Amino acid sequence: MFGSIAAVLAAGAGAAVIGVVVHGHAAHPRAAPERPARQTRSAAGGPAARPPSAPRRPPRRVLIVGGRRQPPRARVPWAASGRYAVARGTARPPRGRRGTVVRYLVEVEQGLPFSWRDFAAAVHRILNDPRGWGSGGRLRFERTDHGQVRFRVSLTSPALASRRCLPLDTGGRLSCWHGPRAIINAMRWGMGAASYGKDLASYREYVINHEVGHGLGHGHLPCPGPGRPAPVMAQQTKTLDGCRRNPWPQRRAAPRADQSTGQRSAGRRVGAQSRSASPAASRPR
């Protein structure tokens, strides 16, 4: 019948195909349109979250003591390789013409958990600090990696330190001067000393200044009195004897104008650092 609509169902490959007769003409069969792939969605209706990644480490806690950011403490093995590696490169002395230039080198025992670059940079900064042995332009320190030097600053495992410091018995727990080396015990560099509490940054300054002080000819000094700053040549690792800890040969405040003369005066020196008759002898700290 003209104008009648007949639906023809054809089954093919399991899919339904519909033919429609319109006004006496048969329409071409069309396949059902494919639905776009569904995007995986979360229970809340939004895009599904990505699989969780490995948990991030929490940020390392920064310790501030006396207004200073402290270096991270490090546990040190009792023994390392037993062989030193010289810190490569050089570091210039402070600018100027005043003061004798003192050449030194830095070496680190292989196998210790410290970067030789970081250790060398710390030593150079400490030695040339205005409160250090070069205060007032008396000395200027230059790091090198070859040739003749006045002394060596050697970061050393406890086992090697106990041998290098002989005949003194340090028990592997102390640093010492044993010419021409300032032997810095890596355990102390990593953990400090009870006398300095949590102030590892200041202890590191103390132990460098103390041992190098022996290399420059200075001997031990006692505490001058309760509550006073300890001389840097006091054995502060062992005890403060009532003194306050002090890592510097000089206590240098900001320059100030003298009211009577208008001249600028520098800070004061902490104690009179005595000269040692035999700086090559071992001295534990």
Query: Unreliable segments (pLDDT under 50, ≥5 consecutive)?
Result: 1-32, 253-268, 274-281
Give the overall pLDDT as a whole number: 79
CATH C-level of the largest domain: Alpha Beta
Which CATH-level-2 architecture of the largest domain? 3-Layer(aba) Sandwich
Percent helix among the residues? 10-25%
Percentage of residues in strands? 15-25%
Report how far the terminal alpha carbons are from each other.
117 Å
CATH topology of the largest domain: Collagenase (Catalytic Domain)
User: Helical element count?
Assistant: 4
Q: Please give the largest β-sheet.
A: 7 strands, mixed
Q: Assign the structural class, choosing from mainly alpha, mainly beta, alpha/beta, alpha+beta, or little secondary structure.
A: alpha+beta
Shape: globular
Structure description:
The strands form 5 sheets. Strands 6, 7, 8, 9, 10, 11 and 16 form a 7-stranded mixed β-sheet that branches. The protein is of the alpha+beta class and 285 residues long. It is built from 4 helices and 16 strands. The protein is globular and about 65 Å long. The N and C termini lie far apart (117 Å). The longest helix has 16 residues. It has 2 domains: 29 residues, no CATH class; 207 residues, Collagenase (Catalytic Domain) (3-Layer(aba) Sandwich), CATH 3.40.390.
Characterize this entry briefly:
With 285 residues, the protein is α+β, with helices and mostly antiparallel strands.
Task: Summarize the SSE layout with pairings.
Elements: E1 7-12, E2 15-22, E3 25-26, E4 64-65, E5 68-69, E6 84-86, E7 100-109, H1 116-127, E8 139-143, E9 151-156, H2 158-164, E10 176-178, E11 181-185, H3 186-191, H4 200-215, E12 250-251, E13 256-257, E14 264-265, E15 268-269, E16 283-284
Parallel strand pairs: 7-8, 7-9, 9-11
Antiparallel strand pairs: 1-2, 2-3, 4-5, 6-7, 10-11, 10-16, 12-15, 13-14
